[in-house]
Amino acid sequence: MKTVRMEEMTWPQIKAAIASGFTTAVVGVGSTEQHGPHLPTMTDARIGDELAHRVALKLGNALHARTIAVGLSDHHLAFPGTLSLKPETLQRILRDYVDSLVRHGFTRIVFLPSHGGNFSTVQAAIEEAREAHPRVEITGYTDLFGLTGFLNSASAEYGVTAEASGAHAGENETSMMMALESDLVVTDEFAPGYLGPTGENELKIIFDKGMPALTSNGVLGDPRTASAERGETYLERLAAFLAAEMEQRSAPRR
Ligand SMILES: [Zn+2]
């Protein structure tokens, strides 16, 4: 097979792939929202697309379904270019994805949110879809602190603090975007944002009051030490981590 990206395949190619055992579909759930003065609004969707693709390749029996490019970004709406869905809208989109994919014979559907605001809605959608399709394994990686913790510890290996690695447009995401879309990264605009802790309290402030309550430039972290080479390492390690988590989770069900 030339590709596992379903959007690049014809329907007979997809039908043949499913028949030959490619019965898992992997879906990234990104966002279109401000990422500071230095990263494009596609950032979470682009990273989510890349991760879903790499996870599909690592799982070995998976196809990559079209990435969902808009998510729950109300807390970023103070910044132009942000597009935001309501939770019930995203939940219905996810359900429609599941219903479509199940009809074609996929028996496992994996959702990979790449934007913090999406995690709890993706989890709710997974639970709803499981009820509707009890024979299909519907799963995903919905542990937000697990994800940020993994990324911060990857950064720590290069001497980057968790605060600089950041939860939004910091060293970590900026490095990944330099690896993926170097032409779209505005290096002249690299500037630190909020550099305090980002635990439950800070997330509550962000979701209740919006990003400007913590950061005026839209950044949580510090992009100034970002590097493309490191970004490639982060993407590869994160994809391996997510693929391993999904493999582990699939065994006990059914
Ligand atoms: Zn992001």
Secondary structure topology:
Blueprint: H1 11-19, E1 24-29, H2 43-59, E2 62-64, H3 87-103, E3 108-113, H4 119-132, E4 137-140, H5 144-156, H6 162-165, H7 171-180, H8 200-209, H9 228-250
Helix pairs in contact: 2-7, 2-9, 3-4, 7-9
The structure holds zinc ion.
Record the strand order, biggest sheet. 2-1-3-4
Please estimate the helix content.
Answer: 40-55%
Shape: globular
What is the H/E string? HEHEHEHEHHHHH
Number of helices: 9
- Overall pLDDT: 96
Report strand %: 5-15%
Radius of gyration: 18 Å
* Main sheet overview: 4 strands, parallel
Tell me the structural class. alpha/beta
Q: How far is it from the N-terminal to the C-terminal residue, by CA?
A: 29 Å
Q: Which stretches are poorly predicted, pLDDT < 50 over at least 5 residues?
A: none
Bound molecules: zinc ion
Number of strands: 4
